[in-house]
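Here is a tokenized protein:
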Amino acid sequence: MATIKRFEEIEAWKLARELCKKVGALIDEGNFKKSFRLIGQIEGSSGSIMDNIAEGFERGTRAEFIQFLGYAKGSCGEFRSQLYRTVDRNYINQQQFDEFFVMAVRISAMLQKLIEYLQKTEVKGTRKR
């Protein structure tokens, strides 16, 4: 397996970025009307997925990276929960819900596999050589 040198190379981060962009586009189109609290929450949780991947990677230790990948995974679950609220209030349609849901589940699975890999590897991180 090739060594990842930048968080931007991580596939889960790339997909999380795409998810965040799509959520932002819906918000910018006015799909959430004036539900500012929900806008803040769903935008925050989608951004938190990619941000936690980046922050954990940049901390430079395997243990901290694993910890922050767990936070990112938690944000994925939070995002999925918020998706139900958006579809229940007809802010998004079922097709949009399904697209976002599949992306979020895929990101979560990718994060879990990365966590499992990191738990088994001898690589300690850039700060712990």
